[in-house]
Amino acid sequence: MVSQCANPGCSAQFLYFGQGQVVAVPHREKPLSESTVEFFWLCGDCSSHLNLEVELNGAMHLVPRQPMRGLSTA
């Protein structure tokens, strides 16, 4: 169960899903027929400037969001 923001520097508590980003990370266990899913949540503030990246080995990293190209701010 998700209880707080995945950003270790943030103390936001997950109360309901109204803002933010939930990431589901599947983990395959042995035997191959068994798998589990782990959920991570970034609060609305953190998800506005961070993304969760998951490597093939299941390690999670926070990375800065890249600005979207082609959008004008005018």
How would you summarize what this structure contains?
Helix content is 5%, strand content 35%. By secondary structure, it is mainly β.
Which key features would you list for this structure?
74 residues; mainly beta; two-stranded antiparallel sheet; 4 strands; globular
Descriptive notes:
- The protein has one helix at residues 44-47, and strands at 21-28, 35-42, 50-54, 60-64.
- It is built from one helix and four strands.
- With 74 residues, it is mostly beta strands.
- Strands 1-2 form a two-stranded antiparallel sheet.
- The mean pLDDT is 81.
- The protein has one domain (1-74).
- A hairpin with a 5-residue loop joins strand 3 and strand 4.
Topology diagram in text:
Layout: E1 21-28, E2 35-42, H1 44-47, E3 50-54, E4 60-64
Antiparallel strand pairs: 1-2, 3-4
Main sheet record: 2 strands, antiparallel
- Percentage of residues in helical conformation: under 10%
Averaged pLDDT, please?
Answer: 81
Low-confidence stretches: none
Shape: globular
Q: How many DSSP helices?
A: 1
Structural class: mainly beta
- Give the number of domains: 1
Largest sheet: spatial strand order = 1-2
Got a strand count?
4
How much beta, percentage-wise? 35-45%
Q: Report the span from N to C terminus.
A: 41 Å
Cα-atom radius of gyration:
15 Å
Secondary-structure element series: EEHEE
